[in-house]
Design brief:
Blueprint (H helix, E strand, L loop, with lengths): L2 H12 L9 H8 L3 E5 L4 E3 L7 E13 L5 E5 L3 E3 L1 H6 L6 E14 H9 L2 H42 L1
Antiparallel strand pairs: 1-6, 2-6, 3-4, 3-5, 3-6
Helix pairs in contact: 1-2
């Protein structure tokens, strides 16, 4: 990989919460364990309730997240990670992730990711802290959405009672 392309990818990784505050040399080392693949629409990266053996970084394209009952719950745009929680926890996939537009994706196997983390305690601590921070942010947002939804339901039922 050329130096210019490597620097562009390091900057892209730096926008991903999981890699916040990592030194560019650590990110370049991470890039060496990534395998770039191109996927066509319809390909399923992750399948609900299957083992979590890889994580993904969407570089270009678009993905959709579908629950076990077939409900589309999210659309994922570049530059985002997918499947990292399952790779870290060992839990089975909680949803199906399908390619919806031609996508360029870095694939990182659990084994190579675990080895990467085992090489440097500082990198491991930074990545784990970043994941905790990101999950905390997502949980706070989910809580806010639930509260807003409950308020909406309450105000809607009051309006119905008045009629």
């Amino acid at each position: 990989m050329g130096s210019k392309a490597g620097n562009i990818l390091v900057k892209a990784l730096g926008r991903i919460p999981m890699f916040k505050d990592l030194h560019p040399l650590h990110m370049k080392r991470f890039l060496r364990i990534c395998v770039l693949k191109v996927y066509k629409p319809g390909f399923q990266l992750c399948v609900n309730d299957m083992p979590s053996d890889s994580m993904f970084i969407l570089l270009t394209g678009e993905l959709v997240v579908v629950t076990g009952d077939g409900t589309q719950v999210a659309t994922i745009f570049p530059v985002k990670t997918v499947g990292e929680m399952g790779v870290i926890t060992g839990e089975r996939r909680s949803a199906t992730v399908e390619v919806s537009r031609l996508s360029h994706i870095f694939v990182i196997t659990k084994r190579t990711f675990d080895f990467y983390l085992s090489e440097d305690a500082g990198v491991r601590a930074t990545i784990y802290k970043n994941i905790i921070d990101d999950l905390s942010f997502k949980l706070a947002n989910s809580n806010k959405r639930i509260i807003d939804y409950q308020k909406e339901l309450t105000s809607g039922s009051r309006g119905m009672a008045a009629t």
